[in-house]
Design goal:
By secondary structure, the chain is an alpha/beta fold. Helices cover 45% and strands 15% of the residues. Strands 3-2-1-4-5-6-7 form a 7-stranded parallel beta sheet, with helices on both faces. Helix 3 packs parallel to helix 4.
Length: 257
């Protein structure tokens, strides 16, 4: 299938590692012109070089951007120009319960998870409207459909992203701009490995990874490139009629509808 992304300008935020980098790599392999953004310049440059080497596509650029700062986002989009495909991604907020967080914690999570999407969409949609084409995919979490124990901040703001995306899908559809939200289940990323390593346990990280997949119907946890396939399709020209939807990529682990 021709996904129609060759030559398209794709921006993937928080793409120096993990799921964001996997998504950027998927688009690069299809011949897109890929821009990756994050706060860490060294990690970004290393990620860009890795993507170039593995995809054989040298149209991969890195831009340092703090997604919690409106001016950084505006400057980034000004440098890139009109974007065809926007993949919104961000790091996860800290774990904890209600009494663990003060106003600053809540405000930071709001800026990190929700306001960065609002600001980025606000800046890219005029160009998408002008060309009558755009695809936006918001990477969230399975907590957008089912609350996760100990992740109060994520449980609060991820569903808000769904509400935003659904509303925007109604407003943007007439301009051929489709927007969807995709939440990963447990994926084998560096972050998951670090979490398992930090947790007190007599089991090795590899044993914990295997155990984490026991409750997944497919029988294992997911790989970043598997998650990226869903993002690639929804953000492609091949997707012509799917908008305003929420998709969980978790190997069938979630039991609710």
């Amino acid at each position: 299938m021709d996904l129609g992304v060759k030559g398209k300008k794709v921006l993937v935020t928080a793409a120096s590692k993990g799921l964001g980098k996997a998504c950027a790599k998927a688009y690069a392999k299809e011949g897109a012109q890929v821009y990756i953004a994050s706060r860490n310049k060294q990690q970004l440059e290393e990620a860009a070089q890795e993507i170039i080497e593995e995809s054989g596509n040298n149209q991969v650029s890195s831009i340092v951007c703090d997604l919690t700062k409106a001016e950084d986002i505006k400057e980034m989009i000004t440098r890139i120009g009109t974007i065809d495909i926007l993949i919104n991604n961000s790091g996860g907020p800290p774990a904890g319960k209600f009494d663990d967080f003060n106003d600053d914690d809540w405000q930071h999570a709001f800026e990190l998870l929700l306001m960065n999407i609002i600001r980025t969409v606000r800046v890219v949609t005029p160009g998408m409207r002008a060309q009558q084409f755009g695809r936006i995919v918001n990477i969230t979490s399975s907590s957008m459909k089912q609350a996760l124990d100990g992740l109060l901040l994520s449980n609060t703001f991820r569903p808000a992203i769904v509400g935003l995306s659904k509303s925007l899908s109604q407003e943007l559809a007439s301009d051929n701009i489709l927007i969807n939200s995709v939440g990963p289940g447990t994926m084998e990323t560096d972050r998951i490995r670090d979490i398992f390593k930090q947790q007190a346990s007599t089991e090795s990280v590899e044993e914990r990874l295997v155990k984490a997949g026991e409750d997944v119907p497919i029988g294992r946890i997911g790989q970043p490139d598997e998650f990226a396939k869903a993002i690639l399709f929804l953000g492609s020209e091949a997707n012509t009629y799917i908008t305003g939807q929420t998709l969980i990529v978790d190997g069938g682990a979630m039991k609710t509808l």
